[in-house]
Design a protein that fits this description.
This is Caspase recruitment domain-containing protein 19. Keywords: Disulfide bond, Endoplasmic reticulum, Membrane, Mitochondrion, Transmembrane, Transmembrane helix. It is a single-pass membrane protein. Associates with BCL10 by CARD-CARD interaction. The chain is an all-alpha fold. It is built from eleven helices and no strands. It has a domain of 95 residues: Death Domain, Fas (Orthogonal Bundle). The chain is 72% helix and 0% strand. The relative contact order is 0.09.
């Protein structure tokens, strides 16, 4: 699709109320005049920056003038629009048409969601099973002295757990050490 057709398609969007403010239009006109003097002459730039005319009229005239002068002029307008109003440039209707995905292309965001759709409960369940297996393996290992270490930890933990719970755990550990 040529830039002139794109500009014709985007003209209503660009000229609608409060899309482009006067400062952005002036910056675009100045860029087309100063950076690319072959796009707009000094007289044309003054005409399109005339504060006596309404912004809507000036912008409509500028877009018609660029379309009349060819595809390269329209392309430079899009470049100036991208530099001076990037958010508006990304919201253009012609850009949205260009961004439509290829049906054969894999959507990575959707693929990522499909891989992670189990949720936090599944993660907590897997983590609990792994922690339980690790604790079981550590406790059943005959080389470690789990009971003595556990007694020392529980002996210093009246602040962390209640007194009754601590007494029950201590009795259980003493009973385990006798066996």
């Amino acid at each position: 699709q040529s830039y002139c057709h794109r500009l014709q398609h985007d003209m209503y969007f660009l000229t609608s109320t409060s899309r482009l403010n006067e400062q952005v239009v002036d910056k675009i006109v100045l860029q087309l005049n100063r950076v690319y003097p072959q796009i707009l002459t000094n007289e044309e730039a003054e005409k399109f920056r005339n504060p006596k005319a309404s912004l809507h009229t000036r912008l409509s005239d500028l877009l018609k003038h660029l379309q009349k002068n060819g595809d390269r002029h329209c392309q430079e307008f899009y470049r100036a629009l991208q530099i001076n109003a990037e958010q508006l440039f990304n919201d253009l209707p012609s850009r949205k048409i260009l961004k439509t995905p290829d049906p054969t292309e894999i959507d990575t965001d959707k693929e990522q969601y499909m891989l992670n759709d189990r949720g936090p409960v599944f993660f907590l369940a897997c983590f609990s099973v792994a922690a339980g297996l690790a604790l079981f393996w550590y406790c059943c290992n005959s080389e470690t002295q789990v009971i003595g270490r556990a007694r020392r930890i529980l002996g210093f933990s009246p602040i962390i757990i209640g007194r009754h719970v601590r007494n029950i755990c201590m009795l259980y550990l003493e009973d385990m050490s006798r066996n």
